[in-house]
Amino acid sequence: MKKHLLFTLCLILIVSSAFSQRMRLNSEIGFTSGISYFLGDLGGGSGDGQAFLHDVDMQSIAPAISFIYREEIVPNFGFRTNLTYTILRGNDANSENESRNERNLSFKSNVWEATAMFEYSPFRFSGRDRKYFTPYVFVGGGLFYFNPKAQYNDYWIALQPLGTEGQGLPQYPERQKYNRVQAVLPFGGGVRFLSDFGWVFGAELTWRLTSTDYLDDVSTSYPNTDYFFQNYDLATATLAANLSDRMDRDVTPEYGQRGSADHNDTYFMGMLTATYHIIKSRHR
């Protein structure tokens, strides 16, 4: 996925640079704000996992904000960049699914994201022709930083350094600690309206595919927590063991399934947009 992402980003930059030297058409700058929702191993509805809208847990919805720059590189086709901040979270205690509820894991993560995207609009804004509305679709790529944490004794503890599934322990050489910078592939669509004052208002929905299954720090199976005490100091080992397995001891499957590695984690955003419309002169 990262190789495809790098190719896409290079293509976007090359094409936008080539066309921008020939013609500078419409551009917009502004911000978006709205909500985000995480879809992965933790939390969710009453299903068994990743069932799209059927797996929505309303209590996990969080705020999101983004700064946006959009430029038309040829008529109807544009290039846009976004710098986005949001919070992603999930909590098994909110799920109606019995096995998730018993697992009793939770997380919260700040997410910082930088993306570049191609955008297509079938209509162009034109005050002369009284064209003030257009739908649009977009697809692109980018990178994001995340750092999943869990609450323990009134403190929020970063989970990646602990290796809660045995990552980094010599007893699990195949489990390496995940990188907290990962690739993201956003795609979606929306509608925009041009006001009489040069401001463009709209709404859009985005689905973001990621290159990791560890947004929530959960992916595979429970480790043998004895190994924490063989490799860490007592305080760190106790913390790692307690945050790795938070189930009732009577129902914990010994080294059994903790999550599912069948799908990478994803997240969604629903945003309201406000950008200022700038008409640029054409250059040859």
Unreliable stretches: none
Return the structural class.
alpha+beta
The total of helices stands at: 4
- CATH topology-level name: Porin
Return the CATH architecture. Beta Barrel
Instruction: Give the C-level CATH assignment.
Output: Mainly Beta
* Total domains: 1
How far is the N terminus from the C terminus?
A: 37 Å
Query: What best-fitting shape do the alpha-carbon axes yield?
Result: elongated
Order of helices and strands: HEEEHEEEEEEHHE
Report strand order across the widest sheet: 1-2-3-4-5-8-9-10
The share of residues in helices is 10-25%
Structure report:
The protein is an alpha+beta fold and 284 residues long. It has one domain: Porin (Beta Barrel). It has four helices and ten strands. The chain has an eight-stranded antiparallel barrel with strand order 1-2-3-4-5-8-9-10. The protein is elongated and about 70 Å long. The model has no long low-confidence stretch (mean pLDDT 86).
Short description:
The protein is of the alpha+beta class. It is built from four helices and ten strands. It has one domain: Porin, CATH 2.40.160.
Secondary-structure topology with pairs:
Elements: H1 2-22, E1 26-39, E2 62-74, E3 77-91, H2 98-103, E4 106-120, E5 133-146, E6 149-152, E7 155-158, E8 181-194, E9 199-210, H3 226-231, H4 234-244, E10 266-279
Antiparallel strand pairs: 1-2, 1-10, 2-3, 3-4, 4-5, 5-8, 6-7, 8-9, 9-10
Please describe the structure with a list of short key phrases separated by commas or semicolons.
single chain; 284 residues; alpha+beta; Porin; eight-stranded antiparallel barrel; two-stranded antiparallel sheet; 4 helices
